[in-house]
Amino acid sequence: MSLRYALLGLLADHPASGYDLLRRFKSSLATVWPATQSQIYTELTKLADSSLISVSDEGARGRKEYTLTDEGLAELRHWLTETAPKRVARNEMLMRVFFLGIVSRAQARTYLAEIGAGTARAQDDLHSLEAGIDWDESNLSVYGRIAMEWGERYYAMNQEWAKWALEQIPERNP
To answer: What is the distance between the alpha carbons of residues 96 and 162, in angstroms, rounded to a whole number?
Structure first.
């Protein structure tokens, strides 16, 4: 359901084609809510059918530019201010950590080290993404930068935790 609001939010900034939305999605929201090209185009069709967006221009080879309608803006504002985000209570990574006593200590240490390395790679990807963004004073830049800072802190915390967790497991059996 949140893909719907991600697209409405991007269109609130300015009209865009499906291709433009896919590019903007990859350079901004993909780290918090990944979506494929087919998912985006399917959702655009649903949004248009629901009159939340409209086709404002059609170009060569069937290219359509979409614009947020007043109904779409009202729906986006309702979602932002009057609904509570769903809290994800499941974390497969931590459930695996809970049961690491079933495998060897070496395997447990490898798993924890991979968490640290994976979050370091994700943090590097986030830094590369941030370096490629032309930040300005637009709403998407201001609030996008705030969201990106959350990602930075999240990855830093995960790396710090993985390092601490590794220290809790002796390298050899006593």
So the answer is: 13
Rounded to whole angstroms, the Cα distance separating 73 from 21 reads 17
Within the chain, what is the greatest distance between any pair of CA atoms?
A: 71
Q: Are 69 and 54 in contact (CB under 8 A)?
A: yes
- The rounded distance, in Å, linking the Cα atoms of 71 and 98 is 46
Q: CA 1: distance to chain centroid?
A: 14
CB 148 within 8 A of CB 173: no
| Alpha-carbon torsion (62, 74, 10, 134), positive or negative | positive
Q: Give the separation between CA 21 and CA 48, rounded to whole angstroms.
A: 15
Count the neighbouring beta carbons within 10 Å of the beta carbon of residue 141: 15
Write out pLDDT tens, residues 67-120. Answer: 999 999 999 999 999 998 888 778 889 999 999 999 999 999 999 999 999 999
For the beta sheet containing 53-58, the strands, ordered from the edge strand earlier in sequence to the opposite edge, are 16-17, 64-68, 53-58
CB 6 within 8 A of CB 29: yes
Task: Note if the pTM is more than 0.85.
Answer: no
